[in-house]
């Protein structure tokens, strides 16, 4: 072996093997072994030795000329390769050690960042907020981040500092937003001293799918795969809002003393069900076979303030025995898709709602006799009336009956009528009665907000609508209101075909700063 080539590194060898015969002029030092110094301060070096070769000419051009190496050359190549592999292992070990040191430094840095955030929290004015305000903020954050498990956001808030931890631990309502999805039927009944009921906390949702009836409860902190949960009645004191959907089992008795809002959607059998008496809001979807149960439960409710009724698959009703329903505190009633016959209307007309202020009718069929009897018997201080009808559900309406209904509620301040069929409610006669002036007492003298919409052309009634609005606009020259009348404050028209008449009349309507005239085209 030629001693003149000793000290040539493995990297130089690779470069020499890759060079051709015409590349001998390149300096071998440019491919020299990399520096093993890791730290310039302490001088730490890699624990390795640079491999040395007996002769680089021995391997010159071997990769290009295609000649197989001799036996003596094979031994030298194996020796060099062994040195190179050892060097690779040494570098890998050093990289691993440096990576572990880097991870350690990153952990120290993250701890300092958290410490800096805690120091900022100590200086934050949020810490000086009273207990009640902090609790309201936490509750708002919790409601915006719902979770089927115990609230993760509440845990995060409680870990910020000791004060916030005390607030979260002392506030059970922050841990009450638990949503359970059950895959078996739902049943609630009383048995001995312990009751198996619908459970849950505030904003709880019960859902059952594809199964037979079995006692189940929701709202506990069990795993997501739990199918049946039994909760003692002593743990149900915090239940405030409950929604039952997609059920196929018997509802039974819901004995929840502090329940405020209850929503029961379709496919929940209500026959024989006993709903809580102290709820404030009830949203109920029922079918014809459950009408008796609906009347019975409504007759027991004394604190109900908001009621929404929706009927499905109503084919008539033959029973005439019913209980009187007196909802003294009811202020809002929404009738959704009520397609009831005359017999049902007569039964519902016996309902007394002396405090009703908001009445909304959406879809279904408009039973004017029912509305008239309801308002006459209750003498309700109705302030807002909304009637939203579609094409298929409404036939011709007896206009004199509608006008007589509006005369029963002289204190009405908001009237909303949406129709998709021409001349069902909106007609020249109606707007002539609503217009101020003339030799008759105008309808709704306290009306302040009027909203009209129709998908049918307003060819015949467009002028009547504009004239009615102008007669009620105090800034208009055609205003004909008396001293006891209230001028119109806003009018919203949703009818593209009325647009030319609106732009002609609008300059005379905009003189009063308090009057809002908007057109949605």
From TrEMBL:
Q: Where is the F-box domain?
A: 127-180
- InterPro entries in the record: F-box-like_dom_sf, F-box_dom, LRR_dom_sf
Q: What is the lineage of its organism?
A: Eukaryota, Fungi, Dikarya, Basidiomycota, Agaricomycotina
* Annotated SUPFAM superfamilies: F-box domain (SSF81383), RNI-like (SSF52047)
Lineage: superkingdom = Eukaryota
Region Disordered: list its residue ranges.
191-211
User: What name is this protein filed under?
Assistant: F-box domain-containing protein
């Amino acid at each position: 072996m030629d001693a003149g080539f000793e000290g040539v590194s493995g990297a130089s060898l690779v470069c020499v093997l890759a060079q051709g015969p015409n590349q001998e002029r390149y300096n071998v030092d440019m491919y020299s072994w990399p520096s093993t110094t890791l730290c310039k301060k302490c001088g730490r070096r890699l624990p390795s030795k640079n491999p040395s070769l007996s002769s680089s000419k021995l391997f010159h051009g071997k990769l290009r000329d295609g000649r197989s190496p001799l036996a003596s050359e094979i031994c030298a190549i194996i020796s060099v390769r062994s040195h190179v592999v050892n060097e690779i292992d040494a570098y890998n070990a050093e990289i691993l050690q440096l990576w572990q040191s880097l991870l350690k430094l990153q952990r120290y840095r993250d701890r300092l960042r958290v410490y800096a955030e805690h120091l900022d929290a100590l200086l934050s004015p949020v810490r000086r907020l009273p207990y009640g305000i902090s609790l309201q903020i936490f509750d708002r954050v919790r409601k915006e981040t719902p979770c089927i498990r115990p609230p993760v956001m509440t845990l995060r808030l409680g870990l910020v500092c000791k004060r916030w931890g005390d607030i979260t631990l002392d506030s059970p309502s922050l841990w009450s937003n638990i949503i359970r999805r059950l895959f078996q039927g739902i049943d609630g009944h009383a048995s001995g001293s312990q009751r198996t009921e619908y459970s849950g906390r505030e904003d709880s949702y019960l859902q059952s799918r594809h199964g037979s009836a079995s006692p189940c409860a929701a709202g506990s902190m069990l795993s997501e795969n739990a199918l049946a949960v039994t909760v003692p009645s002593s743990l149900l004191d915090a239940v405030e809002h409950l929604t039952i959907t997609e059920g196929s089992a018997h509802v039974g008795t819901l004995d929840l003393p502090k329940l405020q809002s209850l929503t029961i959607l379709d496919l929940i059998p209500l026959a024989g069900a006993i709903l809580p008496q102290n709820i404030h809001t009830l949203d109920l979807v029922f079918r014809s076979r459950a009408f008796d149960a609906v009347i019975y439960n409504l007759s027991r409710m004394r604190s109900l303030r908001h009621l929404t009724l929706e009927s499905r698959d109503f084919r008539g009703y033959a029973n005439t025995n019913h209980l009187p329903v007196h909802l003294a505190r009811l202020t809002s009633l929404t009738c959704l898709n009520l397609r009831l016959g005359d017999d049902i209307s007569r039964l519902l007309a016996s309902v007394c709602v002396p405090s009703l202020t908001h009445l909304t009718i959406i879809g279904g069929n408009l039973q004017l006799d029912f509305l008239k009897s309801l308002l006459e018997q209750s003498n309700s201080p109705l302030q807002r009336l909304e009637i939203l009808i579609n094409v298929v559900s409404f036939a011709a309406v007896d206009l004199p009956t509608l006008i007589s209904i509006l005369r029963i509620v002289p204190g009405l301040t908001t009237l909303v009528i949406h129709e998709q069929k021409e001349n069902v409610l909106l007609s020249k006669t109606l707007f002539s009665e609503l217009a101020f002036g003339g030799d008759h007492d105008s309808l709704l003298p306290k009306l302040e907000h009027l909203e009209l919409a129709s998908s049918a052309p307003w060819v015949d009634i467009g002028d009547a609508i504009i004239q009615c609005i102008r007669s009620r606009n105090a800034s208009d020259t055609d205003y004909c209101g008396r001293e006891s009348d209230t001028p119109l404050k806003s009018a919203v028209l949703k009818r593209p075909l009325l647009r030319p008449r609106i732009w002609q009349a609008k300059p005379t309507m905009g003189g009063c700063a308090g009057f809002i005239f908007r057109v949605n085209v």
